[in-house]
Give the backbone structure.
Amino acid sequence: MRGFLERALARAGYEVISFANGREAYDCLQREPFSLLLTDIVMPQMDGIELARKATELDPDLKIMFITGFAAVTLNNETPKDARVLSKPFHLKDLVREVDLLLAA
């Protein structure tokens, strides 16, 4: 799925860097700035909620979007307040539209 998301966003003109797990993403976020963190909530080594919390400690202005297959997931108080959630399944056009909207905000 990560590959499909990567290609859809790249075709829409975005520069995309992807990682196999939350730990790898966090390691990179410590070294370089990003405009958006698009993360699944359920991931190995570090879940998306923890990743988003740590990422916004590094950069409070970082935009956050979660994707999840668990529609009933309730985001807790540690989740950035302006984070968006896109529930699976979704069409890739919906993903690109939501990313466009979030980055324009």
Remarks:
- Residues 2-104 form a domain with the Rossmann fold fold (CATH 3.40.50.2300).
- Strands lie at 36-40, 63-68, 84-87.
- Residues 92-104 form the longest helix (13 residues).
